[in-house]
Amino acid sequence: MSTPSPAAGEAMICSARGCRAPAVWALEWNNPRLHDPERRKTWLACAEHRGSLGDFLDARGFLRAVTPVPGSPTLDM
After folding, report:
1. Which of 9, 28, 42, 46 has its CA 20 to 30 A from that of 66?
2. Whole-model pTM above 0.85?
3. Helices (H) and strands (E) in the chain — how many of each?
4. pLDDT band with cut points at 50, 70 and 90 for residue 9
């Protein structure tokens, strides 16, 4: 699955509740009890919330991949 792209002129924002920071990570996940194995849902995360969102998904066995958001400074790391 490819990382989501924003609509023209629209910033990609962190999925953490109340956070309005730009997203730099895409956390791809699925719930195996609800989704086919190939299906991926995506949460976006800023640098601050990458750990907490990833830990939440990983604790439930849902986290499948973490990738940099295209155009984010994480690609330069």
Report:
1. 9
2. no
3. 1, 3
4. low
